[in-house]
């Protein structure tokens, strides 16, 4: 009980600390990759390529996952990307969108922008119907990617794509995209950053197809927030605390695919046992179970991949070096 009370009393600090830890690691991996890229271009000393950077290659990971299911063959080009995707999907099934609420570095930046927007008093709370319409955008994007890229490609096409120079150079092309953005790209990025200060958690709620996929899986998660209508006093503190705009006070069980499993609604509730985290068969479980399960699953996948030699790419640094040097000339393959 003492552990749960400590967690609930400090949930915002704990969540920010966990998010910041993963975000800082992501920045470190990004910097290491930049140094590796510089070496590949003959502009610095050798620094090992960090596998974690492959977490930003979701399309390649989705194709690798389909190939793994159909053939049992694990992708050895962007291995870490596949591992990270499998970890996120597993978290979605078992611990809702805990990946979004506790691990994702983009979510961390989005929540920071939301906090600053609230401090600057420029944050807007849009009507529920408007949020629902905007939220549909990420599901359209998800449907497009799943149909065109995953559903529409057979094993032969996937295998061919994964072995193309384009896929090999995908991380370098991503880096080049941000190092030398076009005017249009820069304008879009500035808009996305700016809107995050005005509309709470806008990228995650309205545009992220990755989060949309996890939200669909989260619907089947055994963990969910439950509200006891008899003890609810209608203060609506839970509604105001929710970073995703869910009207918790109007639900008995929160099954929304927008729920990121932050549990902050439970922590802010002034009535004991009015909002609780429930598990299988409606049994009440400690609220700290969701974030702990999220982090344990993620680190468990990483550790298993690391010790089973499925984390590090089997492509040699010299091969990456040769591909990166011609990355700007490599175009997307057509099928």
Mean of residue pLDDT values: 92
Cα-to-Cα separation, first versus last residue:
58 Å
What is the C-alpha radius of gyration, as a whole number of Å?
Answer: 21 Å
Overall body shape: globular
Q: Helix fraction?
A: 55-70%
Report on this model:
The protein starts with a helix and ends in an 11-residue tail after the last helix. It has a four-stranded antiparallel β-sheet with strand order 2-1-3-4. The protein is 61% helix and 4% strand. The longest helix has 30 residues, at 11-40. The chain is mainly alpha-helical. Helix 3 (58-71) crosses helix 8 (155-162). It has 17 helices and four strands.
Helix and strand topology:
Elements: H1 2-9, H2 11-40, H3 58-71, H4 79-95, H5 98-103, H6 105-119, H7 128-151, H8 155-162, H9 165-168, H10 170-179, H11 183-196, H12 202-207, H13 209-218, E1 224-227, H14 237-241, E2 253-254, H15 264-268, E3 275-278, E4 284-285, H16 289-307, H17 317-324
Antiparallel strand pairs: 1-2, 1-3, 3-4
Helix pairs in contact: 2-6, 3-4, 3-8, 4-13, 4-16, 7-13
Quick take:
The chain has 335 residues and is mainly alpha-helical. It is built from 17 helices and four strands. Helices cover 61% and strands 4% of the residues.
Protein traits:
17 helices; four-stranded antiparallel sheet; 335 residues; 61% helix; 4% strand; mainly alpha
